[in-house]
Write a structure and sequence with these properties.
single chain, alpha/beta, Spermidine Synthase, Chain: A, domain 2, Rossmann fold, globular
Length: about 290
């Protein structure tokens, strides 16, 4: 019998296919979205939400480490982190590797995603679930950011949001960025996934235009996540009084990385510095 396959049709006129090892580990509809988890031949264990690849164990480090370690190490004093979404806990796991961080608050609207990822992705999140600094809120992150006790609370906010479809739609747009700004401390940073420029160029232009309207500093850097088909993945950032990618910031990050003895699979200081170098065709997308 031929092996079962999963086909993702995220981009118009293009699709990717993964061959499964055995039957899916989970395949169900939560209150918010369709959740599928399976082992694949080439990409390790895979999380799918509403037909879109969210994470594979083989390359999640290229995404989670770059959204997390890069701003934490440049900032130099991050104590409180909020993760918007991130129910697989890969981002939380990376943030909790920093001993200086006192609190990581993960806010995901879908508790079932968290439950299933705890069950099936222990390889990347078991330590995070055991860490007392982690606080999980099953709630609407948009609503959470607007709470009174969220004002000026966080040094770093990581927008581990899906593409702007389904329950993730509210995590894009001007009102969302205004709430992010409100929840950041002075000198804090926010980082976001901003699509694959090769297939989603408009996401960069629209997101950076909105960030510029709310933050004194903002910009773009790159990573490469093979499972997110299209080559480079764009990660946008916003600063409340500080910039990412400055010579001083890169020097501070390199020194902090050496001192911390972080164990990483993708991130290192050289990759950190190179991430801010944009190919010309991507540079032209920046408003």
């Amino acid at each position: 019998m031929p092996a079962s396959r999963f086909k993702e049709r995220l981009h118009k006129g293009y699709a990717q296919t993964m061959e499964l090892c055995g039957k899916p580990l989970a395949d169900e509809k939560s209150r918010h979205q369709r959740i599928k988890i399976f082992d694949s031949v080439a990409n390790g264990r895979v999380l799918i939400l509403d037909g879109v690849v969210q994470l594979t164990t083989r390359d999640e480090s290229a995404y989670a480490e770059m959204l997390t370690h890069l701003p934490v190490l440049e900032h130099g004093g991050v104590e409180r982190v909020m993760i918007v979404g991130g129910g697989d806990l890969s981002i939380a796991d990376e943030a909790l590797k920093h001993k200086s961080i006192k609190e990581v608050v993960l806010v995901d609207i879908d508790g079932r995603v968290i439950e299933l990822c705890r069950q099936h992705f222990a390889e990347i999140n078991a330590k995070a679930f055991k860490d007392k600094r982690l606080k999980i809120e099953v709630a609407d992150a948009f609503e959470y950011l607007g709470r009174k006790d969220s004002k000026a609370r966080f040094d770093l906010i990581v927008g581990d949001r899906p593409d702007p479809i389904g329950p993730g739609k509210v995590l894009f747009g001007e009102t969302f960025y205004d709430r992010i700004k409100r929840a950041l401390k002075p000198g804090g940073f926010a980082t976001f996934q901003t699509g694959v420029p090769f297939y989603q160029p408009w996401e960069i232009t629209e997101a950076l235009a909105e960030l510029k309207a709310f933050f004194p500093q903002s910009g773009l850097y790159l990573t490469v996540v093979p499972s997110y088909i299209g080559g480079f993945m764009a990660l946008s950032w916003a600063g409340k009084g500080a910039r990412l990618g400055t010579p001083a910031g890169l020097k501070r990050a390199a020194a902090a990385y050496k001192k911390s003895r972080l164990k990483t699979d993708y991130y290192n200081p050289a990759v950190h510095a190179a991430a801010f170098a944009l190919p010309q065709w991507i540079e032209r997308l920046v408003p």
